[in-house]
Design brief:
Keywords: Membrane, Transmembrane, Transmembrane helix, Transport. By secondary structure, the protein is an all-alpha fold. The chain has one domain: Up-down Bundle (Amino acid/polyamine transporter I), CATH 1.20.1740. The protein has helices at residues 10-21, 24-36, 43-68, 72-79, 84-114, 124-132, 146-164, 167-194, 199-207, 217-230, 237-242, 251-284, 288-291, 295-308, 313-346, 351-366, 374-404, 408-418, 425-451. Helix 5 (84-114) crosses helix 16 (351-366) and helix 5 packs antiparallel against helix 17. The chain is globular, with a radius of gyration of 21 Å. The structure holds 4-fluoro-L-phenylalanine and sodium ion (NA).
Length: 452
Amino acid sequence: MENRSQWGTRLGFLLAAMGSAIGLGNIWRFPATAFENGGGAFFLPYLFALLTAGIPLLILEYTIGHKYRGSAPKSYSKISKGMEWIGWWQVAVSFVISTYYPIIIAWAIMYSYFSFGQQWGSDATGFFVADYLQLADPGTFGSMVPMVLFPLLAVWLIVFFFLGRGVKKGIEVANKIFIPTLVVIFLIIVVRALTLPGALLGLDAFFKPDWSMIADGSVWVAAYGQIFFSLSIAFAIMITYASYLPKKSDITNNAFITGFANSSFELLAGIGVFATLGFLASQSNEAVSEVVAGGVGLAFMVFPEIISQMPMAGLFGFLFFASLVLAGLSSMISISETYVAAVQEKFNVSRGKAVAFGGGLAAVLSLFFANQGGLNLLDTVDRFINSYGVALSGLFQVVAIAWFAKGLKDFQSHADSVSDIKLGLWWRVCLGIITPVVLGYMMLQNLRSELL
Ligand code: PFF
Ligand code: NA
C-alpha cells in the first residue's frame, strides 16, 4: 500500500509533532511542578530526563512509525504478532483522554469570552465552581451545563473538520495555523507579564534553586513524569504522526528539534506564569509560594483573579485563554488521530468513517463530563490515567522493544540509515536500562501512594 497519506513538508510534520507536545502540560503543569520540586535546581533532573528518556523515546517512536508505516497497533503487530495489544493499549489511553480533554478546551473558550468585562466578578473560584460549572448542587447526574455543552460541540466540530480533511490538508494545515499563532500570543503574554509590578518577585521564586531536593527520589520521578507527559510519549501519537513521514526524513534530528522546542515553550510558560504570580503576590502582600497553583486551579481560579487586577484586563484574559484553546486543540487533534488511524487500518474503512465512528463515540462519552458533576469525574479519570495508563504504557513499550523484540540494534540501524546524527551505545543504554528502571520505579510509587 504505497498510497499512504504523507505530510506535505518537513516543517508540517515538525509543527504537528510540536502541536501535540505543546499543550496544557507546558502551560499549567510544568511551572508548578518545577516550583514544587526544587525551583531552579529542578532543571538538572529535568534536563537529565529529557536527554536520557524523552529524546531517546521520541527517536524510538519516530523510528517505529517511519519504519513500519502504520498506526500504533499495526506497527506493533509488524514488529511481532504478539505485540499488537501494546498499540491498542496506547490507543485506548489516548481515546479515554480524548473524552475529557475537549471539556477543558470548552471551558477555555467560554473563559476567553468571560474575560471581556471579567464576568467572574470578585470571587473567581466561587464563580467557576458554583456559577459556571454548577457544581454546588450536582443533583442527579444527567443535567447538562449549557455553557459547557455548546463550546464542547464547537470543539468537536473543529476536530472533526481537520481530521476529516486528512493528514496534509487537515492536521498539517491546522498546526500551521495554530502553532505560530500560539507562539506569537504567548510571547505577547510573557512580555506583558514581565512588565507588571512584582514580576521579578515571581521569577525569583521560580528560579531560586533548592539544591537539597536533588537528593530526593521523588524529584527525579517528577522530572521524568513531566518529560513523558509533555512530549506525548507512549500515547501512540508520535508513532502515528511519524508513519506519515516520507521515506527520506531525518528521524533523529526531528526528535531533537521536537524535544527542544517543547522544553523551550515550557521554560517560556514558566517565566510567564511566575511573572504573573509575582504580580498577584505583590498586589495582595503575600509570598509567591502562597499563590502558586497548577492545573485547573491555576487557569480557572487564580488567573481570573489576577486578570481582574490588571490594566487592559479583557485583552490579557482573552489572549491567555486563547493560548489554552490553541495549545489544547492541537494536542486534541493528535490524540484523536491515534484511533482514527488505528480503526481505519484495522477495519479497512475510509478516513471519514473512522472519524465518524471513533470521534463520534468519544464525543458522546465526553457529554458525561459536561454534566453538573463533570469536574469530579474528570478529576478521577485523569488521576487514574496519569497513574496507570501512562507509566504502564511506556513500560510495556520500552520493555517489549528493548528486551523482547529483535532488539534495539535493529531500530538503531533504521534510524541511522536516514539520519545525520548516528545513535550509539548511549541510546540503547537509555532505552534498555535507564527508562525501564525509572518507569518501573514510578509505577511502584504510584501503587504505593494509592494503597497507603
Ligand atoms: N503533551 C501534551 C502537553 O504537554 O500538554 C499533553 C498531551 C497531549 C498528553 C496529548 C497526552 C496526549 F495524548
Ligand atoms: Na508538552
